[in-house]
Amino acid sequence: MERTEKQYQTYVQILKEELVPAMGCTEPIAIAYCAAKARKVLEKRPDKVVIEVSGNIIKNVKSVIVPNTGGLKGIEASAAAGIIAGKEEKILEVIADVTEDEKKQIKEYLSEATFQVTPSTSDMIFDIVVTVYAKDSYAKVRIVNFHTNVVLIEKDGTTIYEAGTKTSNTVLSDRSLLNVQDIIAFADTVKIEDVKDVLARQVSYNMAIAEEGMKGHYGANIGKVLVNSYGDDVKVRARAMAAAGSDARMSGCELPVIINSGSGNQGMTASIPVVVYAKELGKTEEELYRALVVSNLITIHLKTGIGRLSAYCGAVSAGCGAGCGIAYLHGGRYDEIAHTLVNAVAIASGIVCDGAKPSCAAKIGASVDAGLMGYYMYVNGQQFRDGDGIVKKGVENTIANVSRLGQVGMRETDKEIIKIMVGQ
């Protein structure tokens, strides 16, 4: 693939758009970012905060610790952190720099100000509206579709900025250009200097939090459970390190991660196992980066049709991506990678997303295992075939079926999961 081709340039841009840093679980951070922007527009500390969120936001904020808050959880805590200590110009690292005094102020503010959380009445799966009030003045900010996509800024009845919610995804590069064959061709030919910065940062950030997760005590300590139970073979370590990173992140570890498809868990799952295998196989830095291109872009390709938030567990897509990256490290190209992907999604596509919380780490372990199983099935001459459940002949046809399952088929499942979680 030539550097001058539109597809090459688009793939580079997709990596730059998706592989960005975030401090903490991205849905609470999106609320903090929205609230920080609203506070800046208001130009004073609000005494009342109204937060309208779609069901999937409720699902993914309910059970995770918001970093740099002293262990607080929930929608109100996320908004309060953004208002008191947020630096909105830092986007998804909006609350990366919080002082000890500010942590105390966040807790005090939660008891002093009035907070109101209401379910969104829009039809958007990803929707956050934060309205802040101070005496007779108010400011409103709305984010839809993805974590940084501000579509409305309003103050005291005057619209400062507005974009259409239905077309807002057009600010991202064209994901329809993604396909497995061209992803591999791009990985083979990309000039490393075009992708090195984003991939080096992904390796540095995500391995740091994985190592912290293995050292510390976070969540259910899934990484340690895996190693203690199954040994330290590379197949175990690949799963354990990714799970450990998730456990740390879900439990409020104050280290940033590089996300993929709007998710830190997916960013870690798509990268950490590939790094572990590259080290085990003695691969060069360049070989690692090319494998990470495969893993990240296939993860994004799988997630594009499903959507940012769904009842379909995003770790599955990333685990499948990691399996493909590992296949690439072993010298596999289109046949090996296509079969790895089809096998992996056939194994793990039934895992549901019931919000961000410690069990995400275990789902990551299972998803990476599916990615590895998908590859080792191919190595052993085994595969799932056309007509086996959702599997259809041709990797892109199977991906289309997964997209349909995640976006359409699991829509009612998503609603029921949310009802269960909020006790309805």
Tell me what the structure shows.
57% of the residues lie in helices and 10% in strands. The chain is built from 16 helices and eight strands. The N and C termini lie far apart (52 Å). It has helices spanning 6-18, 26-42, 55-61, 75-85, 100-112, 180-189, 192-215, 222-230, 234-250, 264-281, 285-306, 314-329, 334-348, 359-379, 395-409, 411-422, and strands at 21-22, 48-53, 114-119, 127-134, 137-144, 150-155, 158-162, 257-258. The protein is an alpha+beta fold. The protein folds into two domains: 23-170, 60s Ribosomal Protein L30, Chain: A (2-Layer Sandwich), CATH 3.30.1330; 178-422, no CATH class.
Question: Quick gist of this model?
Answer:
By secondary structure, the chain is α+β, with helices and mostly antiparallel strands.
